[in-house]
Amino acid sequence: VRMRSLVLIGHGSHLNGESAVAVYRYAELIRQRGLFDEVIEGYWKEEPSLRQVLKTTASTDVTVIPMFISEGYFTETVIPREMGLGHQGPVPPEGVARVIGGRTVRYTLPYGVHPSMTDVILARAREVLPDANPEDTALIVLGHGTTRNENSNRIVYQNADRIRESGQFAEVQALFLDEDPKVGTWPETVRSPRVVVVPFFASEGWHTLETIPEDMGLTGTVTDFTENPHGHQQVFYARPVGTHAAVADVILHLAEEASGAGGPGGDTERGHEAAWQAFLKGARAGLRVGEVLVTPELGVFELRNALDEGRPGADLTTLVTPEGVRDQVRFTDGGEHRPVHTLRNLPRGWRAVLSEADLRRAMHYVYPAVIEETYAHDCHALRPTPWATTARRQTGIYAKVQKATPAQVEHVAQDVCTGCLRTRLWAGHKLTQSFLNGVPGGIPCAEACTFVVAEVREEVSGKRGGGGH
Ligand code: SF4
Hints:
The chain has 14 helices and 16 strands. Helices cover 32% and strands 17% of the residues. It has helices at residues 21-33, 73-83, 117-128, 153-166, 186-189, 206-216, 247-259, 270-285, 322-329, 356-366, 370-378, 387-393, 406-416, 450-460, and strands spanning 5-10, 38-43, 61-66, 96-100, 103-107, 137-143, 171-176, 194-199, 234-237, 287-289, 292-297, 300-305, 317-319, 350-354, 422-424, 443-445. The two termini are 48 Å apart. Helix 13 (406-416) packs across helix 14. The protein has four domains: 5-113 and 246-269, Rossmann fold, CATH 3.40.50; 117-243, Rossmann fold; 271-368, 2-Layer Sandwich (Gyrase A, domain 2); 383-460, Alpha-Beta Plaits, CATH 3.30.70. By secondary structure, it is of the alpha/beta class. The structure holds iron/sulfur cluster. Iron/sulfur cluster is lined by residues 340, 342, 416-417, 420, 422, 424, 445, 448-449, 451-452.
């Protein structure tokens, strides 16, 4: 059987649960097309983390796509470094291919730089002005401009050039929020009576909802700018390109180009499969993993919080899909975002009834990478990364964690990791029994997670309040 895995990488957030949602949505759209055997999400600041995500793929043929609108610090430095791609700097158009631990991994450019983004810009323009024409309509492609983390202006110019050459608009301008030519200069240069503005931005937010309309001098509600105080031009303001469903097509173009149409595919990754078989063997007999209880039930499996053991099913919300489980476990009972899934705050009050295939996907969402890492630990194949190595790797705003004293690191770990199921192998702690041999809380932590790295940074900066979160 030839298998192919697709991994979509997002930024994610330690604080805000909404950050990861766009990547989940695109992963679902691509899963529905059925072209890949699996579509996995990975994040810098959520789990599975960049350090773990390759381990969670089931095949030896993996295509990795950064879900970013432009090239820059994340796509050229952070993602390749954290994923162990042995590459730094600009990614060539054909991508970067590496063999990592028996998997062939192909890393592509971010979706935003793909030429087919031009189609997404045009689709957004048509949504706000279906009868745009070369006689009376101008198009403004609006970019962020160069920032600390991204370099998007070249792509905005390229898209504007392509659309100008196509002759569909009377004039096409590339304008920017943070660099010249600035967005506020549009009344001086754009002459057409009708003006379509398409923000080349990843998502709706402060810039697209407030800064841009303000800088352009637009009045009215955000979705309906048809007048402006500068003259008689009508302005049609589109939604950002990054949230258009057609981005799923761009992702598939990228993936096909990277792996060759149809691709030769790979095999089942043996270590990964062995880990899941070990888990399923336990599940068929009934098993506790961390805070979750897995119970076999007439050909299906039930998952629930172990604290809800014995509660009648009617008292609990019943979930029937891995996605339902995912959305349930992303927040605590108090509604707080859970960037680290092994923190002991799994919500209660739900049960999931799942087939064996869905149980695997649901467990991946409940405890990302936990099955793979624990099995590897039990086979003496999980190598811990000491704090000093993790710290040395950090760049950008996190470089300062290198200054943390061992006492500061331990202080943060005492505070954060005490609430976590995992045992800190990276700090020299030993784990002798795992959930695979009957100790539910036995889960290894091979290296400090990005949440702890961020907390150590706060500690070094003196910004960390004493105890608790
Ligand atoms: Fe848990 Fe601490 Fe490991 Fe993060 S570093 S996963 S909080 S044990």
